[in-house]
User: Fold these one by one.
Assistant:
Number 1:
Amino acid sequence: MVVIFCVIGKAQTDFGSYFLEGTWAGRELNASDSLRGKVEIYLPGIYFESHHSNEISLKDIFRQNGQGSTVNISNIINKFDDVNTLENNFKLNTIGVGLKVKNFDIDIRHNVRFKARLDYPKELVKLIFEGNSQYIGETVDFGSSVDFFSYHEYGVGASRKFGPLSLGARVKYLSGIGLIKTNGTDASLFTDDDVYQLTLDTDYTILTSNSLDIDGLSDFTFQGDLANNFFSSNTGWAFDLAASFQVSDALKFSASLVDIGFIVWNDDTSGFTSQGSYTYEGFDLDDFLLNDDVEFDVKLDTLEDIFEFEESSAQVNTDLGTKLYFAGQYQLNEKIQVGALLVMNNTAFEGNAFGLNVQYSLGKSSLIGLNYSHRKDSFSNLGIQFLASVGPVVIFGNTDNIFSVVSNDNFRFNGRLGLGLSF
């Protein structure tokens, strides 16, 4: 039995939502935040984020010619790092309710969350699109790692004021939907410079739970039933903790810990391992990869001879990726508030981040805002946010990089859109 512990980091830090105070998005990141009304109904909303480790934009991918747009493969490959990371994450806020009960603000909510990360070397892309003739007499490492998991999240939070001090906490029960993770990702190819003999070595393990069944490369079955895993046997717990202190009528400081916890995957959890060396003579890999006349089924049958997977039982523990927020806010006048936010992560890939925010009030329950954030290897992140109320209806949204929405020059974006009722 294989036991694995892993941490999957998030692609981007959500800055704008932290300053949407009084909404379920703001309270999600700061459990000490107060509810807007006596009764809050949380209606469905979404949050998404995507990020690539190097700055490949849509303009780099597509090239304009007289016949329209074509994929610019050579330009893309030149921009890849030696090792590249692609992260995509999605959160669906389904339903929830918030209530003021005596001295407490209490909220109950349900979310569905998806987290995915792919780490892959530049050589893998070059092999796929340019073949192996460029690597004759060389050993090329092309092993890649995949981390994906999804889960239901059921949360109950409470906050209370003690004079200028507000304290909040949330406990979250987690029910795993599906998991795909690689462990031991060694894969290399050697092309002999004399007889062009190919030697491929693998030490590769794919760990899955409720997501994937493997019976050779020609029989990959994807599972993962969202509807039937509201309460699965793969479970975990997570906690949020927060505190806010009102120094004066204008100045406030806050701190928040989010997603302290993990999921244990031990039901219907398996490891599929390919380990060994495979030698093939008289085989033209360039023709195999680049020739569209070679049928796909033939390619799979050949690859299946190389990657012979053996199944074993496994247990995987996935850390959610805890974040620590520190914020300060200052009310300049009745209309303008400014703020600063520092976010610290327990994942080396993402790194710490710092942001500034300014909001302009359009009335008692409406505002617009701008925020600037400095992230690891990224300095030009300008975001917008809004909050609008019409009667009991509250709608809000934000993105931390507006340039990714209005142009094709950036492959780093996130966004949130939410809806609720406040009474």
Number 2:
Amino acid sequence: MIPETFTASLWHATAPPAPSPPPVEFPARADVAIVGAGIFGLTLALGLARAGVDVLVVERAAIGHGASGRNGGLIVPAFPRLGPSDVIAKLGAPGERLVAAIGGSASRVFAIARDEAIACDAVQGGWIMPAHAPRNVAGFEKRAADWARHDHRVEVLDRAASAARIGSDWWHGAMFDREGGHLNPLAYTRGLAAAALRAGARIVTECPVTAIEGRVVHTARGRIDAERVIVATNAHPETPLAGIADQAVPLHVWQMASTPYPADVVARVLPGSPSLSDTRNDLFAVRWTADRRLVIGGMAAILAGAGERLARRNERRIAEAFPILAPVRIDKVWHGRASLTPDLLPRLVETGAVIAVTACNGRGIGMNTILAEALGRYIASGDRDDLPLPIASAPRPVPKPALAAFAPRALLPLGRLQDWRERRR
């Protein structure tokens, strides 16, 4: 059993308070009912409400209680392990639209934060992906050329240039995308909720959905009748629609924050405050916060006691990569759940009046944003050319989902061994 850590996170300690929505009477009616008050659901609610649609968002816990409010806050305008040509080969014409959208996804997030005056410590300092081993550098030129063919510029840095950009010579080179960055994800999610409420959307929290039957959403407080129902719970195990959660494999991820560093030290590590995630199988993603803490993520093969073990392990990893930061002291640790699909691409399922989206594969902030805005256009037009994904008529569960759920933890030691071997070649 993993302890609940939502209120233990740095984001919870530093984000502005969540808005207090006006009460909603049940039974309720809406043009569109959205299940899930995370980044996807709230971005969609904001856009629909601005267009005059009567929207009701229902959330089982607090606003941003899921992955939207627990992740590391990195905004990455790229796909995990896939280039644009890979995506188009898998998806065809919708893939071309998805490539164009994801390339601009980070800038879109920052524009929303700016336009809605969301206080979320947003910093568009870029995103850097350095190579932990020499063999990884060779693929950077190819990937950058692939993005250039789709009108998105990515810089390739040699070892000296990457060392200057990162403040460490531990890596062998890097790709750098100036459009990336980071923010406080819980503050951003709460800010989206406030903006959606101002636009006329309704939000109900602490209200679990017990079942969805066509256009009827059954909740702990009563029923909601809607013309459209959007399930925006990603791959949460309690997703109230059969088969949706089983389309992806769950990932247990811990985020943690160091104690604050002096300003002169911060200026020498990740100058300009880019976000960083490298090429290792074993997650290494770091970024600075507004109060000069370093936030880093991590995964564990054994869940029991993982938070404390990962904190000590990441203290060593940070000190190895950035000796100037030693000794590293982590004082906040919190747990979240991400998800992976077999092809590392999100899913869109439409069954009658119900649409479900799932699995952002570690690219949640940007991917949720562009998918939510595209879905809003589709709801208004009915034109599938507005969507950057093909629509499936039924979920596609991974084979043996209960067994597959253990795969990431089982394979993690092998991934760490591969990282170690590649590093020493």
